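Quick one: examine this chain and its backbone structure tokens and tell me how the chain folds. Here goes:
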Amino acid sequence: DANRQISEYKFKLSKAEQDRTTLEQNIARLEGQVARYKNAAENAEKVEDELKAEKRKLQRELRTALDKIEEMEMTNSHLMKRLEKMKANRTALLSQQ
């Protein structure tokens, strides 16, 4: 009976050691995954920050371009009015002669 118990305990010990080895391997694999996911998350955050900076830069450039367009449209309008006045003055001078 004692030998049977010893054999049973030896089997249980062997099984527990196998389970422990399996669990240690799982831990190592999961730690590797965690490290990869952490690295990927850090890279994604870095890319996100770069994209946000690029977006802000492009929005500034867009505002500058829109301001410049508005300024040029105002200048064009002013010049068109001056041209119309000059044409009207020329027509008036030619009709007086």
In short: Residues 7 and 77 are 102 Å apart (CA to CA). The mean pLDDT is 97. The helical segments are 2-96. Residues 1-96 form one domain.
